[in-house]
What does this fold into?
Amino acid sequence: MSKAMKLALEALMIVRFCVPPAQRKTVNEAIKAIEEALAKQEQGEPVAVVTGMYGGQFIVEPTNPAMVLPVNIALYTRPQPRTWIDLTGEELETLLRENRSLTLGAIWAVADKLKEKNNG
It folds into this structure.
């Protein structure tokens, strides 16, 4: 399911600026909904809860009583999703003007600009 959601998100990101302004709000809402669903999916459920301390050691209880946690197991948390920084209208106009038409080159230029704005 997440692969299909990621493909749908990618497609919507590509066509977002190709749709008439009247439909752009709907496309943006769909993008936001998919991003939120994917973020929630990636967070997963906790496997254990720290319930206290005894003798300088944490007491950890599995959230599923049937689960056996091995001694010395490392428990990790996933990083929280970062806030998305979108292009401004002016930045988008500049990119499209520089590329003259919505081509693969323009799409990659937008992707590169977004990566730059999101430190990655």
